UniProtKB/TrEMBL annotation:
InterPro entries: RutC-like_sf, YjgF/YER057c/UK114. It comes from Acetobacterium woodii (strain ATCC 29683 / DSM 1030 / JCM 2381 / KCTC 1655 / WB1). Pfam families: Ribonuc_L-PSP. It comes from the Bacteria. This is Endoribonuclease, L-PSP family. SUPFAM superfamilies: YjgF-like.
Length: 132
């Protein structure tokens, strides 16, 4: 994947195969603008947080999409995704939403299971970094 700012690379060294939908290496073109975003949660546009985990996943990606659009960026500008989840992720559902959002060559990713997030109702929080 290459959008003239962000390039996702495969490792040419000895490294284990990715165990999920992510790229091991993401390269940013010099003199690009680097963006960090606050973690996004599964609240809908009215601020309501669903009790259902997969609905929170869906809403979180809607929020991320809207953030990117607000500064004229697209999912292929995302260089890193950090995911914190209080519940076991339904990977079949998550990978469908994630794949639809990022396409065949997703960005670098880290996943962590945690005991708590900012509010009790929040079950997943996703933070992105981007370059444009």
């Amino acid at each position: 994947m290459n959008n003239n700012v962000v390039t996702r690379l495969s490792s040419s060294g000895r490294i284990s195969k990715a165990v999920g939908n992510y790229t091991h290496i993401t390269k940013i073109k010099p003199n690009s603008t680097f963006y960090t975003f606050s973690g996004q949660i599964g609240a809908d546009l009215d601020g309501n947080i669903s009790e259902e985990f997969n609905q929170q996943v869906k809403n979180t990606f809607i929020n991320i999409s809207n953030l990117l659009k607000s500064i004229n960026l697209e999912p292929n500008n995302v260089i890193k995704v950090n995911i914190w989840s209080k519940e076991e992720i339904d990977w079949e559902y998550f990978d469908k939403i994630y794949g639809d959002f990022f396409g065949k060559t997703p960005p670098s990713m880290t996943v962590a299971y945690v005991n708590a997030l900012g509010l009790d109702a929040i079950k997943i929080e996703i933070e992105i970094w981007a370059a444009g």
